[in-house]
From TrEMBL:
This is Thiamine pyrophosphate-binding protein. Keywords: Thiamine pyrophosphate. CDD domains: TPP_PYR_POX_like. PANTHER family: ACETOLACTATE SYNTHASE CATALYTIC SUBUNIT, MITOCHONDRIAL, THIAMINE PYROPHOSPHATE ENZYMES.
Length: 575
C-alpha cells in the first residue's frame, strides 16, 4: 500500500480496524469527535455510548479479560478524561491491555488552562503502562503504533492516548502497511531452572501449585491442568487465578487468602513445604502474614515481570519466564524422566481432593429469612451454565462470592483484583455479553456498589444487552459495617443506606431498585424467599432482555475472614 493522504483520526480509525477492534466504549465530546467520526465513516467498529465515562473504561477492561483482545474506550477532554482514571487504575493493577483515547484542546492551547483542558497524561501516568500526548501530527500515527505495541507486549497494561483536536483533523501522508507488529520473544525458563524445580519437587513432601492471574493472561489454563495432572499435586488459586482451574477437578484444593479463600485452600497452603507460584504476585490479601506463610516452605516463583520476584517473600528459585512456556517445559521434563528409568522418576501418587474439599466447605444450605447471601449464591450457581460469566464489584458480596461461587471455565470470573472497584461489575457484565452473546452474563452486586453504576442500566436497555443484575440488598455498605462491628466496638457511621422511601411500597429499604430499573427500561422483580430465586432467574433468561433481580438479604449475616491478617485465623464457622 502506497502512502495515502488522510487525517490522523482517519489513520487511527483504520489502524484499529486492521487490528480487529470490534467495539469502542465511551462518551464523545467536541475534542474527540474527529476520531469518533472517522470510526463511523471508515470502519464497522460498533460504538457503545455509556452514561458515565468510567463505565466505558470498565467495559473495555472486561472485554479484554474475556476475549484476550485489546479493549478500547474513549472520552473527551477535561472531566471526560479524568472520569476514566478509576478504570485505568483497575486494568493497570491487573495487567490488562487496553487503549484509552482522550480528546485534548488544540495543541497551541495545551498548558493555558483553556476550557476543559487538563494535563490528563500527567494525571494518568501513575496508573498506566504508558501515556502519549499527541500534539504533533507528523509523528502521531507512528506514536500510536508504539502505544498499541506497548499495551500488548511484555507485561501488558493500559495505555492512554491524548489526542489534540487539531492534530486529529490534520492531514498526513501515511502507509499503514508500514506499521507491523513484530512478535516479541517472551523470556523462557532455562534448563537449569527446570532441573532445580524438579529437584525441589523430589525433596518436597507436600508441594502445591498456586495459579495466579498470569495463567489467564498467558492463556495457559490447559497447560496448568496438564502440569497438575502430571505431577498429581494440589492446585490453589489466588484471587486473579480463580477461574484458571476447574473447581470440581480432583486436584483443586481451593482458594487462598485472608478474605477470598476456601477452607481447604488455606489449609493446603499452610501445610505445604513447597509452593510453586505460577504467574501470581504473592499479594498481601493472598498470603497474609509473611512469616506465617513462609514458615518452612520453599518457594519457586514464576513470573514474566522480574520486579515481582522476591518483592514480598524470600524466594529459593525465581524464574523470570512466560508462565505457559515454563509449565510446558516442566511437564515435558517430568514425563521424560518418568519414561527413562525408575531411578530418575519422580514419585507420583494419584490424588483426589473431592471428598476433603466437600467435607471442609462452608455452609450454604441456609433456609433462614431474610435470605442468607450464602444461599442466594448457591441458588445462582446451581442455575447458571458452567461457562456463564459472573462479574463483581468490591464489597461483602464479592467476598462471599470468592469464598463460595465455583468456576469451571477460564476467563469467566470477572473481578478487579488489585483495585477492588465499586461500580465495575455492571459494565464488565455488559462487555462480556457483547463479546459472547450466547453465554449467560450476571453481575453479582451489593446495593452499595450498584448505587455507583446504576445509571448504566440505561446502557443495557438502550443496546438491549441481556445481562442479569443480581442485587444482594442488605441496605448497607456491608463490608464496612462488619468491620465497624468487629474492630470499632459497633461504632457505626455512614454505612447505613436505609431510609423511608415514601414514593415506593418497599417498607424502609431506601432505593427501590426494581422501579428504578423499570424507569430505565430494564425489567425487574423483587425476591424475598430463597425458593423464588431460580424461577426469577429462569424468567430473566427467557426474557432475552436486561433484567434486574433484587434480593432482600439478611443485613445481619456475617462473612468469615481473618481478624488479624493471618491465613490461620479465618473463622470458617461464622458462615
Amino acid at each position: 500500500m502506497a502512502k495515502q493522504k488522510m487525517t490522523v483520526a482517519e489513520a487511527i480509525a483504520l489502524y484499529l480496524k486492521r487490528k480487529g477492534v470490534e467495539h469502542i466504549y465511551g462518551v464523545p465530546g467536541v475534542a474527540i469527535l474527529p476520531l469518533y467520526d472517522a470510526i463511523r465513516e471508515l470502519t464497522d467498529i460498533q460504538s457503545f455510548v455509556v452514561r458515565h465515562e468510567q463505565t466505558g473504561a470498565f467495559m473495555a477492561d472486561a472485554y479484554s479479560r474475556v476475549t484476550n483482545k485489546v479493549g478500547v474506550c474513549a472520552a473527551t477532554s477535561g472531566p471526560g478524561g479524568t472520569n476514566l482514571i478509576t478504570g485505568l487504575y483497575g486494568s493497570y493493577m491487573d495487567c490488562i491491555p487496553m487503549i484509552a483515547f482522550t480528546g485534548q484542546v488544540a495543541s497551541h492551547l495545551v498548558g493555558t488552562q483553556s476550557f476543559q483542558e487538563v494535563a490528563i497524561t500527567e494525571i494518568a501516568k501513575p496508573v498506566c503502562k504508558a501515556v502519549y500526548l499527541m500534539n504533533d501530527a507528523s509523528t502521531a500515527v507512528q506514536r500510536f503504533h508504539e502505544a498499541w505495541e506497548t499495551a500488548t507486549t511484555g507485561k501488558k497494561g493500559p495505555v492512554l492516548v491524548d489526542l489534540c483536536v487539531d492534530v486529529q483533523k490534520t492531514e498526513v501522508e501515511v502507509d499503514l502497511d508500514e506499521f507491523v507488529s513484530v512478535p516479541v520473544e517472551l523470556p523462557e525458563a532455562s534448563d537449569e531452572d527446570i532441573a532445580k524445580t524438579i529437584q525441589m519437587l523430589r525433596e518436597a513432601k507436600k508441594p502445591v501449585l498456586i495459579s495466579g492471574g498470569g495463567v489467564n493472561l498467558a492463556m495457559a489454563q490447559a497447560e496448568l491442568k496438564e502440569l497438575a495432572e502430571t505431577l498429581q499435586i494440589p492446585v490453589v488459586t489466588s484471587v486473579m487465578g480463580i477461574d484458571t482451574f476447574p473447581n470440581d477437578h480432583p486436584l483443586f484444593a481451593g482458594r487462598m487468602g485472608t478474605m477470598l479463600n476456601t477452607p481447604l485452600g488455606n489449609k493446603t497452603i499452610l501445610e505445604s513445604d513447597l509452593v510453586i507460584n505460577l504467574g501470581g504476585r504473592f499479594g498481601d490479601r493472598s498470603i497474609g502474614n509473611f512469616e506465617e506463610f513462609k514458615h518452612n516452605t520453599k518457594i519457586v516463583h514464576v513470573n514474566i515481570d522480574q520486579k515481582q520476584i522476591g518483592k514480598y517473600l524470600e524466594t529459593e528459585l525465581g524464574v523470570i519466564a512466560d508462565v505457559k512456556s515454563f509449565m510446558v517445559k516442566l511437564t515435558n521434563a517430568v514425563k521424560q524422566l518418568n519414561q527413562e528409568a525408575a531411578a530418575t522418576a519422580l514419585e507420583i501418587k494419584p490424588l483426589d481432593l473431592t471428598e476433603e474439599r466437600t467435607r471442609l466447605a462452608r455452609k450454604t444450605d441456609f433456609e433462614d429469612l431474610p435470605i442468607k447471601p450464602q444461599r442466594a449464591l448457591r441458588e445462582l450457581r446451581e442455575f447458571l451454565d458452567r461457562d456463564a460469566f459472573v462479574s463483581h464489584d468490591c464489597g461483602i458480596s464479592q467476598i462471599w462470592s470468592c469464598q463460595l461461587f465455583e468456576t469451571y471455565e477460564p476467563r469467566t470470573y470477572l473481578i478487579t483484583g488489585g483495585a477492588g472497584t465499586m461500580g465495575w461489575g455492571l459494565g464488565a457484565a455488559m462487555a462480556a455479553k457483547l463479546a459472547f452473546p450466547n453465554r449467560q452474563s450476571v453481575n453479582i452486586v451489593g446495593d452499595g456498589s450498584l448505587g455507583m453504576s446504576l445509571q448504566d442500566l440505561a446502557t443495557a436497555a438502550k443496546f438491549n444487552i441481556p445481562v442479569i443484575v443480581f442485587v444482594l440488598n442488605n441496605s448497607l455498605y456491608g463490608l464496612i459495617r462488619q468491620q465497624q462491628n468487629w474492630w470499632y466496638d459497633e461504632r457505626r457511621i455512614s454505612t447505613d443506606l436505609v431510609y423511608k422511601n415514601e414514593l415506593c411500597d418497599n417498607e424502609e429499604r431506601g432505593i427501590d431498585f426494581v422501579k428504578t430499573a423499570e424507569g430505565m427500561g430494564v425489567r425487574g422483580e423483587l425476591v424475598t424467599h430463597w425458593k423464588d430465586i431460580k424461577p426469577a432467574l429462569q424468567r430473566a433468561v427467557e426474557s432475552g432482555k436486561p433484567y434486574l433481580i433484587e434480593l432482600v438479604v439478611d443485613p445481619n449475616a456475617v462473612c468469615g475472614f481473618s481478624f488479624n491478617g493471618r491465613l490461620s485465623t479465618v473463622d470458617y464457622s461464622i458462615n
